[in-house]
């Protein structure tokens, strides 16, 4: 179980484990069958044991088959075993935790997390819902469109309803106006397009030109392309969303979305401008702009193969780009800016480009890729790149890198809160071509780095300046340079040390020290 917690602390253990301790306000002791738990409790604490146990002012939690219904306030938690049903509400800083097959239903407010084991339904961080559900057999729509239209206005004010549904048809919509209000309750909207302003599915081919799409509701994505053989093409149009979990352009289930000269704006939390989810697909965005202002709302959230060219994208309270699992983002001649000033969900490291695997099951596992050529990548907070619990390749060619005032870290490859402890570091291959790069690199002892400082490149920085840690290999081409800014520890080096500018520092290669003296 991984996640961030606000108010309240938790102790958790496995069968047969002994846990002894004291608890203060909002703390909990949790355990598994056969566990012994001894301790004292103060205000707001919970006691867990066998069915039928009750204590005044406390919560009783127990074994499979037990049903528990109620409300909880600050710092309280609802936890249980397989098959248990738990329904309730949570306030600030609360968590829902459980084991396989457990059903957990509730509401969460600021700073909350849902944590659990495989099979559990969970809404995850950075706009990525988790869990398992199946596609709906039908959709509710204010207008199901099967023929071309020009200059029409489409409106939906109901919950769980699309303003426009194009179901398997080939349709062109020109100069239309779409207004969507009304909420949806959860993940099916993000997986399958329920409650979106415009939804195309079932192999539809939808072309949108010169149009304005506005949504104001929870889980009300702007333009949604769902399912294999479904294609949405949108050009010269404006997409605006204001609710939480409401991406601008959304693609899932292997669909295709192509956008050009689009203006995208989102204001809600977990609402990326260019967003994908379970099943991914292909997204191609050119000559467009995108801005986000919500927490956990990067300019791009990728569980798909996403390409962006000639565009300007920015996130005022989130990463510029997030890649989850074995997916890719390719950026060409574009300017991207991120400001990860508020950490979201399980994140513990502020960064501009997060490359990770959440283990939620919504992004295929495998090697990911971030490729950028031309343009600029600007971090207003945190490191430039953070790689964790995944294997990835980062290719940079002639990109202007603008660093945050609070960080001089180019790349942080380290374990975070996702994956299995001790095995959840990152593995990165970084290729620099005609690239100027600055900043330190951190590789922890569960991670690895292959750094190729290729043709016409220069790197200024240190690697693991505090001492040897993860596995690091560096190659330096004959027409490139490396300027040390601190003592550096690596395992192997390929190239000429004549191209290394040591200054007052030492380069340790497999334990042997090299310097200018």
Describe the protein:
1% of the residues lie in helices and 46% in strands. Residues 1-131 have low confidence and may be disordered. The strands form nine sheets. It has a 22-stranded parallel β-sheet that branches. A twelve-stranded parallel β-sheet has the order 13-16-19-22-24-26-29-32-35-38-41-44. Strands 43-46-48-51 form a four-stranded parallel β-sheet, with no helix packed on it. The protein is elongated, with a radius of gyration of 25 Å. With 517 residues, the protein is mainly β. 50% of the residues are buried.
Rg, rounded, reads 25 Å
Report on the biggest sheet.
22 strands, parallel
- Which band does the percent of strand residues land in? over 45%
* Backbone structural class: mainly beta
* Weakly predicted, low-confidence segments: 1-131
Distance between the termini: 50 Å
DSSP summary: helix tally: 1
Morphology: elongated
- Residue-averaged pLDDT: 81
Tally of DSSP β-strands: 53
- The share of residues in helices is under 10%
Topology record:
Blueprint: E1 10-11, E2 18-22, E3 28-29, E4 36-40, E5 47-48, E6 60-61, E7 67-71, E8 77-79, E9 85-89, E10 95-98, E11 103-107, E12 113-116, E13 141-144, E14 149-150, E15 153-156, E16 162-167, E17 170-174, E18 177-181, H1 187-192, E19 198-201, E20 205-209, E21 212-216, E22 223-226, E23 231-241, E24 249-252, E25 255-266, E26 274-276, E27 281-286, E28 289-292, E29 300-302, E30 305-309, E31 312-315, E32 321-324, E33 328-332, E34 335-338, E35 351-356, E36 368-373, E37 376-379, E38 383-388, E39 391-397, E40 400-402, E41 409-413, E42 427-433, E43 436-438, E44 440-443, E45 448-453, E46 458-460, E47 471-476, E48 481-483, E49 488-490, E50 492-494, E51 500-501, E52 507-509, E53 512-514
Parallel strand pairs: 1-3, 2-4, 5-6, 7-9, 8-10, 9-11, 10-12, 13-16, 14-17, 15-18, 16-19, 17-20, 18-21, 19-22, 20-23, 21-23, 22-24, 23-25, 24-26, 25-27, 25-28, 26-29, 27-30, 28-31, 29-32, 30-33, 31-34, 32-35, 33-36, 34-37, 35-38, 36-39, 37-40, 38-41, 39-42, 41-44, 42-45, 43-46, 45-47, 46-48, ...
Antiparallel strand pairs: 52-53
């Amino acid at each position: 179980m991984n996640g961030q917690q606000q108010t309240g602390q938790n102790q958790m253990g496995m069968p047969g484990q002994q846990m002894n301790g004291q608890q203060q306000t909002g703390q909990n002791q949790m355990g598994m069958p056969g566990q012994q738990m001894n301790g004292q409790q103060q205000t707001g604490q919970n006691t867990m044991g066998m069915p039928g146990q009750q204590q005044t002012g406390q919560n009783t939690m127990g074994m499979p088959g037990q049903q528990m219904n109620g409300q909880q306030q600050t710092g309280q938690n609802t936890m249980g075993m397989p098959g248990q049903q738990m329904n309730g509400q949570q306030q600030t800083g609360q968590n829902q935790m459980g084991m396989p097959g457990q059903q957990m239903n509730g509401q969460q407010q600021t700073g909350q997390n849902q944590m659990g084991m495989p099979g559990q339904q969970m809404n995850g961080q950075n706009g990525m819902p988790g869990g398992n559900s199946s596609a709906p057999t039908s959709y509710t729509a204010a207008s199901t469109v099967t023929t071309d239209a020009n200059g029409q206005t489409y409106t939906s004010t109901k919950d769980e309803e699309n303003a426009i549904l194009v179901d398997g048809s080939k349709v062109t919509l020109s100069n239309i106006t779409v207004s969507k209000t009304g909420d949806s309750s959860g993940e099916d909207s993000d997986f399958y397009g329920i409650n979106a302003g415009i939804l195309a599915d079932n192999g539809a081919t939808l072309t949108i030109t010169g149009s304005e799409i506005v949504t104001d509701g929870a889980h009300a994505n702007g333009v949604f392309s769902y399912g294999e053989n479904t294609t949405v093409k949108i050009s010269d149009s404006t997409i605006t969303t204001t609710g939480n979990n409401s991406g601008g352009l959304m693609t899932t289930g292997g669909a295709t979305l192509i956008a050009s000269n689009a203006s995208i704006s989102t204001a809600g939390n977990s609402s990326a401008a260019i967003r994908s989810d379970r099943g991914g697909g292909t997204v191609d965005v050119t000559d467009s702009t995108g801005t986000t202002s919500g927490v956990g709302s990067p300019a791009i959230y990728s569980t798909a193969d996403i390409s962006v060219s000639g565009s300007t994208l920015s996130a005022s309270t989130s990463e510029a780009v997030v890649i989850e699992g074995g997916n890719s983002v390719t950026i060409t001649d574009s300017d991207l800016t991120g400001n990860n000033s508020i950490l979201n969900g399980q994140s513990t490291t502020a960064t501009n480009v997060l490359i990770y695997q959440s283990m939620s099951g919504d992004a295929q596992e495998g090697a990911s890729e971030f490729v950028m050529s031309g343009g600029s990548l600007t971090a207003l907070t945190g490191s430039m790149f953070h790689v964790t619990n995944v294997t990835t390749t980062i290719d940079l060619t002639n990109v202007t890198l603008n660093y945050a005032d609070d960080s001089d870290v180019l790349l942080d490859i380290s374990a975070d809160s996702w994956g299995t402890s001790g095995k959840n570091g990152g593995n990165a291959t970084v290729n620099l071509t005609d690239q100027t790069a600055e900043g330190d690199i951190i590789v922890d002892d569960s991670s690895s780095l292959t750094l190729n400082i290729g043709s016409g490149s220069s790197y200024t920085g240190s690697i693991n300046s505090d001492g040897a840690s993860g596995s690091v290999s560096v190659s330096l081409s004959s027409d490139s340079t490396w300027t040390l800014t601190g003592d550096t520890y690596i395992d192997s080096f390929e190239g000429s040390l004549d191209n290394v500018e040591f200054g007052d520092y030492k380069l340790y290669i497999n334990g042997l020290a090299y310097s200018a003296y």
